[in-house]
Amino acid sequence: MSYELIRVERIGPVCRIYLNRPEVRNAQDRSLLRELDGALREAEADDDVRVVVLGAVGDHFSAGHDLKSARVERPNPTVEQRWNYEEEHFLEYCLRLHDLKKPTIAQVQGACIAGGYMVANMCDLIVCADNAFFSDPVAHSMGTASLEVLIHPWVMGMRKAKELIFTGARLPAAEALQIGMVNRVVPVAELEQATLELANTVAAAPPYGLRFTKRSLNRTWDAQGFRAAISAHFDLHQLSHVTEEFQEHLKRGLDSTIKRAKGLA
Predict the structure, then answer these.
(1) Coil, helix or strand for 171?
(2) What pLDDT was estimated at residue 75?
(3) CA dihedral over 196, 200, 201, 203, signed as positive or negative
(4) Structure pTM?
(5) Which listed site, 85, 173, 191, 245, has its alpha carbon 20 to 30 Å from 56?
(6) Closest CA to 105 of 93, 121, 90
(7) What pLDDT score does 265 carry?
């Protein structure tokens, strides 16, 4: 396939997929998400690909959902339309990334906010630049029940997850490393090379051994209720869109949402 909003390159056994909308801090619109899902499917089907790296062009990994394009594409969605869109583009796409048959590594620099946080944390490993930060401001800025996929308590302790969501504050890369949410933090200039080196190390292992081990590790979460919790939260997230609080948010307009989110930094 040919892509417009992502960049795909093969480096030996490693497939690097880069979000490529740097002019909007790699905000995720419908087209980018569909291209990303397509590229992941292609990499999974390619027997020569052993590891997938998910990164981004520019200074930031992703500012999250593209709220401006959403307002144009879906100005007044019904409950059913919103549910269908978010189930496909957020819940199903994220779980497909989580379940990918090959190891995945997120390569994160700069801002990794909301939907960006959600996508990065679906990867098996995360390598960060020292200027990276993570944030989920939507409960504060929009009045919804966090993100569509509540991965937070699974990648950090419950109390830290609550703090991140309740305050909307930034989680710096160094602290993310300290609490075990990311695997490595390196200087910005070394991010690509450090991630590629890790990917090549992983790729040197027998592929089916990794595939079976990843499945077993993911099933450990499943045995603890991962999928049930993810699905239950998605339903609550949809319910939060019909509250009076969210309707008030809509009346204030998009600029108010963005200003409020930035004020939490």
Answers:
(1) strand
(2) 72
(3) positive
(4) 0.94
(5) 85
(6) 121
(7) 57
CB 133 within 8 A of CB 111: yes
Q: Phi, psi (5° rounding) for residue 69?
A: -70, -35
Residue 167 to residues 111, 129, 261, Cα–Cα distance (Å): 17, 23, 11
135 by DSSP, 3-state: which? strand
| Residue 55, φ and ψ in degrees, nearest 5 | -130, -160
The SS3 call for residue 191 is helix
- Distance CA(1)–CA(194), nearest Å, equals 28
**H or E stretch including 185?**
strand 184-186
Tokens 């075990």 sit on residue? 180
Q: What is the pLDDT of residue 12?
A: 98
Q: How many Cβ atoms from other residues are within 10 Å of residue 21's Cβ?
A: 21
Question: In the prediction, which pLDDT does 218 show?
Answer: 98
Biggest CA-to-CA distance, the chain: 55
Specify the pLDDT at position 256. 61
Q: Are 59 and 109 in contact (CB under 8 A)?
A: yes
- Strand 133-135's sheet: what is its strand order? 111-113, 133-135, 171-172
Q: Which mean pLDDT values do the consecutive 10-residue runs of the chain (265 residues) have?
A: 94 98 97 97 98 98 89 81 95 98 98 97 98 94 91 97 95 98 98 98 97 98 98 95 84 66 61
Give dist(CA 108, CA 6) in Å, integer: 15
